[in-house]
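In practice, a research group might receive sequence data for several interacting partners and want a quick structural hypothesis before committing to experiments. The following worked case mirrors that situation: the sequences arrive first, and a predicted assembly follows.
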Amino acid sequence: MAPPAEVLAVRGLSKSFPGVRALDDVDLTLHAGEVHALIGENGAGKSTLIKLLTGVYRPDAGEITFQGHAVSFGTPLEAQKAGISTIYQEVNLIPLLSVARNLFLGREPRNRFGVLDLARMNREAEDTLRGYGVQVDVRRPLRTLGVGAQQMVGLARAVATDARVVIMDEPTSSLEPREVETLFSVIRRLRDAGIAVVYVSHRLDELYAVCSTVTVLRDGRRVHHGSLADLDRLALVSTMLGRDLGEVREEGLTKFTGDHQSAGSEPVLDAADLTVPHKLHGVSLSIRPGEVVGLGGLLGSGRTETAKAISGALPVRSGRVTVAGVPLRGGSAPAAIRAGISLLPEDRKSEGIVPGLSVRENIALAVLPRLSRFGLVSEARVDSVVDTFMKRLRIKASSPHQKVGELSGGNQQKVLLARWLAMNPKVLLLDEPTRGIDVGAKAEVQKLVDELAADGLGVLLISSDLEELIEGSDRVVVLKDGAVVGELTGDDVTEERLMRTIAGDTLAEPVKEVTSDG
Amino acid sequence: MAEATLRTAPLDKTRVLQWLQTYGVYAGVAVLLVVNIVITPHFLSAENFRTQAVQVAPVIIVALGMALVIGTEGVDLSVGAVMALAASVTALYLGYGLLPALLVVALFAAAVGLANGALVALVGVQPIVATLALMVGGRGIALVLLPQLEDLRNPALASLGSGDILGIPYLILIATVLALLVAFVVRRTTFGRQLLAIGDSRPAAQLAGLPVRRVLIIVYTVCALLASVAGVLATARLQASDPTSLGNLMELSAITAVVVGGTPLTGGRVNIAGTVAGAVLIQLLTATLIKHDLPPSWTQIAQAIVIVAAVYAARGRGKR
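A structural hypothesis for the assembly, expressed as tokens:
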């Protein structure tokens, strides 16, 4: 039997954005009937690659061959018409149109007068969707369906448009387990029909359940490709995170200094059974004063959600948070802040700084009511607080009146830290505190975290930078798919242990040397 | 090199736009004043200034509230309806005396403001939709309460509309005091700072623990209360309650004053002095055209040109 035909071939694809090389000389080959896992951490280039394949972006260099012909798609519609369909995380259908209309959008059946044949359309829509495990009244508007069902409609639509390649970008992020099963059976059917599927997900279980081949991207480059069965989980995780196991034991490069002495044995923060539908499933953790607890896990494992749930920014279905022995009521951000919890959000630009306001206003933002009497701001007290923290955190700005949006990333991050420190918090939740800031500022922020812990604050540290996570934390709680899967303490706080835990190897298992096949 | 280019090219586009954004409205007022002094007979008379000021006072008062709402990245279309409601309620309750009537007016206005605020802050309806509902509904209620124009004969109300202290009409005094008050609130109070932060970045304000909902509800309530003050004053000046036409298109005049005055529609900044100047600019423009016997349609066209110019200047700043 001849090998399956090559459907899509990508050679030397590159794309740059101002200041960043998003994709660098990447190759990718897809055969008919192949389910191909495309993985990588944030910023690895997955989305860029998908957008180049589907005509959202134009490549700077490289070529795309689709079914034997060199192609260059100008718009997503062209790519779709040619036979490359994409199912995005967010459903890209029209919520107010009926299910059937969505399914047949742009290729509606017409009767011999050229008028829409509604009866036929509805009948065929029902037949089609039954095959996807969706049984609904197809005349209802799409938005009345659950997200999972909507996704199935999107999938059915993609397949029905004679797709040869179907790209799925984290298709299961909002699906129930039962719906995931249906999705898998659909993917297998696509595979059997000779359609090539690109499957993007951070859930290792899913990758191993449906994918046969894999491409790993890191920092815009392809760092591994081949059969997925030949790559065990640990190797997959280490390839993805870029941590060669042999290299892990080397001296660290971060500015963190050793362990912290926990002052009391009573935890300053105790979170129990935090549950958020689709995101967190009973996450518990506690932090003692003076302790830095790392939160490990892959992208989408629930790290950010855990921090947000603790800080009241994400409503929880169940669970409780206790700060210094006092239960937190209300589950709202202001209540958590009053109790002494401060969150440095992951998305500094849109959730952290208020870009149009000055450094001074940004630092004083949260603490303002405490510096005011009867709602009147005491400018003198604001000035003194701002001055104190600009000096202590070495914030570089032309003046306190400079707009925060004009500062460098590192200084913006320090402004946010100052905002919280002015509140005199008990617990600091730091979500990617050093992402996107330059090396010097990074070291300063790391040093600050150390100092703050030494002052007796409880710190929760989230970082995709493994080195930072390991060296900065006294203890690491590991999350996977929204649940705690392990905790590393003492001498076990190593990158290797962390990766093993993420990969799902049992901790009891003796540590073996693993040959890296990067 | 870049500096040298800037110096040799004084008409650099972004700098001109920036200057226009900050001072354009004052320059516009100055130009109109000069032009009128030259071409309009009797323009410099005290009587004329008094007329202009009395006419613009209600617009300024409404625009103050509008500026606060726009500062939160919202908009309030119901201000005209609130003016009409204030007129109806004044007519209905004036029999009990001016003060009780004013109290009831305030209650009605607060109710409309709370409804707007609750829809925006609690239910999450877009401000333009929420206040559109109240714009239609508010005038409806006003007309149910008082179906047609009614002459009001009340000495207290009449003196509020046409009386003065040392030759300065009450209307102007009230507008001035309110403008100073609102400017003070924006600059010096926690509420003012929180309002700006919410307008600039709502997610950040939320995560910083700001009472976002409370601030929004208060802002819409204050806006409605200010509109009701304008409604009462306009009624007092007319000595008649006219719920059918009072405050018609006032929302647009107020938004124009705010935007022309340099407050961006994207929120995060409130320019009170500019808003007052913006209202004055539109008033002068209208007066100039009317005094020279141009039809009202010309006034509208002129207004449109001013708005486009203001938005253009603002765009240059926002893009940077």
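Before designing any experiment, note the following. Residues 13-39 of chain B form the longest helix (27 residues). Chain B is about 75% helix and 0% strand.
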